[in-house]
Write a structure and sequence with these properties.
Structural class of chain A: alpha+beta
Pfam family, one (chain A): MelC1
Oligomer: heterodimer
CATH architecture of one domain in chain A: 2-Layer Sandwich
Strand content of chain B: under 5%
Low-confidence stretches of chain A: 1-32
Radius of gyration of chain A: 14 Å
Mean pLDDT of chain B: 97
CATH architecture of chain B: Orthogonal Bundle
Distance between the termini of chain B: 16 Å
CATH class of one domain in chain A: Alpha Beta
Strand order of the largest sheet of chain B: 1-2
Strand content of chain A: 25-35%
GO molecular function (chain A): copper ion binding
Helix content of chain B: 25-40%
Number of strands of chain A: 8
Number of helices of chain A: 2
Order of helices and strands of chain B: EHHHHHHHHE
Number of domains of chain B: 1
CATH superfamily of chain B: Di-copper center containing domain from catechol oxidase
Radius of gyration of chain B: 18 Å
Low-confidence stretches of chain B: none
Largest interface: A-B, 34 and 45 residues
Number of strands of chain B: 2
Protein name (chain A): Tyrosinase
Helix content of chain A: 10-25%
Distance between the termini of chain A: 38 Å
CATH topology of one domain in chain A: protein ne1242 fold
Order of helices and strands of chain A: HEEEEEEEEH
Shape of chain A: globular
Shape of chain B: globular
Bound molecules: copper (II) ion
Largest sheet of chain B: 2 strands, parallel
Family (chain A): Belongs to the melC1 family.
CATH topology of chain B: di-copper center containing domain from catechol oxidase
Organism (chain A): Streptomyces pseudovenezuelae
Number of helices of chain B: 8
Strand order of the largest sheet of chain A: 1-2-3-4-5
Chain lengths: 114, 274
């Protein structure tokens, strides 16, 4: 198996990010709505959040600085997002962090873009 | 007759004409429609829902037809142009002539991934990224950053040796040739190449990078090689599979073409070598 390295660009962009280290926020005030897999943190200067949106359809929303990131679950439980579509990672939080790495500070566009 | 050639063997004139035809499709707006179509399918194809372009048996015929559309568009600009293919198991470094300034240009700047040379560099003004998922309007690449190595000839061989085209559950969890070629399982061929190129090629709007077509032309050639290697193996499933395109079902977005119509590439083009 090839070694799947995390992006080496990480080191290059770390200097640009306001906070290079992931800093988990205190659990949101509406913790009674939070599912076990929800998250809310500042990762490399960007706020990433994931939470269930309720409803009977099991909706879930991942955002980067408040803009929704399109994510998708693979049959084996891994995740991808529209900005990293060929490189599965274990969790939605990992997909959000991979998106921040890929964006290198750029803003995400609401989807469907254009 | 259309002959698809290895990109490494193209003459200077063939490269020039290919680039000029691509740039003309971009200028006229026709290019971006291909990007939009691809992103629409990649966001909609899901493992447990309807799936057509990706993570399903029709990954190969869908991209074959998509590339035929694009090649015909190129030929409407310059009838001498055909799609070259990139054998990434052989031309496997950023120093390959593919990435030269006379063809696709090289990797991106380390700070922001911006491609700085070649006909598709943002500075030319000829290659705006319009169909995009983030604010950046310039072509980006990070050759070899997201994953260090492109697939080897031995890894390609190990996938070509799989005799079964595809298997239930007909998605990213499947065993068999299609899913190993697509890369959701095993040594990972097609997906890994997208990740190796990086930039827009690693995203749903991957056709923003012209190397998309050369990558998929080689994936398509591997399908043809697999067919010759396994003459008794067939496209499956044959019929009655919910959410999945069976052999004789039509495929979106065309709705007038079935996998069965696309199994024989020689009706449309041949390759320079076997
Ligand atoms: Cu595709
Ligand atoms: Cu692809």
């Amino acid at each position: 198996m090839p070694e799947l390295t995390r992006r080496t660009a990480l080191t290059a962009t770390a200097a640009l990010a306001a906070g290079a280290v992931a800093a988990p926020r205190a659990a949101a005030e509406d913790h009674h709505h939070a599912s076990p897999d929800s998250f809310d943190e500042v990762y490399r200067g960007r706020r990433i959040q994931g939470r269930s949106t309720g409803g009977h359809h099991g909706g879930y929303r991942v955002t980067v600085d408040g803009v929704e990131l399109h994510v998708m679950r693979n049959a084996d439980g891994t995740w991808i997002s529209v900005v990293s579509h060929y490189d599965p990672v274990p969790t939605r939080r990992a997909a959000a962090r991979a998106a921040v790495d890929e964006l290198q500070g750029a803003r995400l566009l609401p989807f469907p873009a254009n | 007759m259309t002959v698809r050639k290895n990109q490494a063997t193209l003459t200077a004139d063939e490269k020039r004409r290919f680039v000029a035809a691509v740039l003309e499709l971009k200028r006229s707006g026709r290019y971006d429609a291909f990007v939009t179509t691809h992103n629409g399918f990649i966001m909609a194809d899901t493992d447990n829902g309807e799936r057509t372009g990706h993570r399903s048996p029709s990954f190969l015929p869908w991209h074959r037809r998509f590339l035929l559309d694009f090649e015909q568009a190129l030929q409407s600009v310059d009838a001498s142009v055909t799609l070259p293919y990139w054998d990434w198991s052989t031309d496997r470094t950023p120093r390959a002539s593919l990435w030269g300034p006379d063809f696709l240009g090289g990797t991106g700047h380390s700070r922001d991934g911006r491609v700085m040379d070649g006909p598709f560099a943002a500075d030319t003004g000829n290659w705006p990224i319009n169909v995009r998922v983030d604010g950046r309007t310039y072509l980006r690449r990070a050759l070899g950053d997201g994953v260090r190595e492109l697939p080897t000839p031995g890894e390609v061989e190990s996938v070509l040796s799989m005799a079964t085209y595809d298997m239930p559950p007909w998605n990213s969890a499947s065993d068999g040739f299609r899913n190993h070629l697509e890369g959701w399982r095993g040594v990972n061929l097609h997906n890994r190449v997208h990740v190796w190129v990086g930039g827009q090629m690693a995203t749903g709007v991957s056709p923003n990078d012209p190397v998309f077509w050369l990558h998929h032309a080689y994936v398509d050639k591997l399908w043809a090689r697999w067919q010759r290697r396994h003459p008794d193996s067939r496209y499956v499933p044959a019929a009655g599979t919910p959410q999945v395109v069976d052999l004789d079902e039509t495929m979106r977005p065309w709705n007038d073409v079935r996998p069965a119509d696309l199994l024989d590439h020689t009706r449309h083009y041949t390759f320079d070598t076997a």
